[in-house]
Amino acid sequence: MVMCYYMTLRLRGTVSDFYGAVSEQLTAARRLALLARRRGDNMKIGIIGSGRVGYSMGKYLSVGGEDVIGFYDRHPKRADDAAAFTQTKSFSDLSQLVELSDTLFITTQDGEIANIWDCISKYDLNNKIISHFSGSLSSDVFQGIDETGAKGLSIHPMLAFSNKYNSYLQLNEAFFTLEGNDDAVRTMSAILEAHGNHVLHVAKEDKALYHCATSVLSNHVVAVLQSGYEMLEAVGFSTEDAIRATANLVKCNVENVIENGPVNALTGPIERNDVGTVRKHLLSLNDVQKARYCEMGMKIVEIAMEKHPEKDYEDMISLLQ
What is the 3-state secondary structure of the chain? Predict the structure, then answer.
């Protein structure tokens, strides 16, 4: 975690420059929030669930000047800790939190969202925004919400919440996707954009594909790295040495993709159309490794053909198939 922050700071400038930029952004957000309060339309946010997302969103918005009422959790000690961390209140009575809030964030695990909705749908929810933070579920999980007068919303920050006490520091640069009731989307978009965030709208029928994409870009990358580390371990590297030895290779490649796009960043024997080297790779692998290599290799061929339309990759395709 420390290394990630250090590398981020190196890329963007000095530590003072980084925190100066964050401070300037938060100051602007506070001004907007204070202006909203004077108009009397600042939303009052209650958070149900005291996990990493709840901690992070509560801290991020409260530091930015939003009126975060506090937390409810079925484990009271967790709500107490989240409230202390965000300098808000802890609620033992869910109905009280609902009553005091005009916006509710459900930040529990996906499987609990429908259950939480069943619990709160019996309360007076007229004109309240009810939102969850699942990447895969749409606002349809709030069955019968129109009958309550509430407005359903799904919010998903495109960020891996690795630590409930530190991840809020990365939220200032996170993209958020929103889906749901039009009024709720407009309201939350305005709040997030006031904090400097980019907001994208996703159709409810596209939520599953959207979440699949984020999983591939996050979790599947870990699987690819682990596969490479295991190959290095097979030739004598320890796990620690494999990670350390390839750290710059991995970081520079990811940075190159982010800066220049996948097509321009692509290198390696498949991109060069080096059939002989790829054949040697395949001969060194067991059946499981070979299947993974070929599957990813075919995708690399697609990218390589876009980069080099003049090259004939037929022999490479035949080898990988």
Answer: CHHHHHHHHHHHCCHHHHHHHHHHHHHHHHHHHHHHHHHCCCCEEEEECCCHHHHHHHHHHHHCCCEEEEEECCCHHHHHHHHHHHCCEEECCHHHHHHHCCEEEECCCHHHHHHHHHHHCCCCCCCCEEEECCCCCCHHHCCCHHHHCCEEEEEEECCCCCCCCCHHHHHHHCEEEEEECHHHHHHHHHHHHHCCCEEEECCHHHHHHHHHHHHHHHHHHHHHHHHHHHHHHHCCCCHHHHHHHCHHHHHHHHHHHHHHCHHHHCCCCCCCCCHHHHHHHHHCCCHHHHHHHHHHHHHHHHHHHHHCCCCCCHHHHHHHC
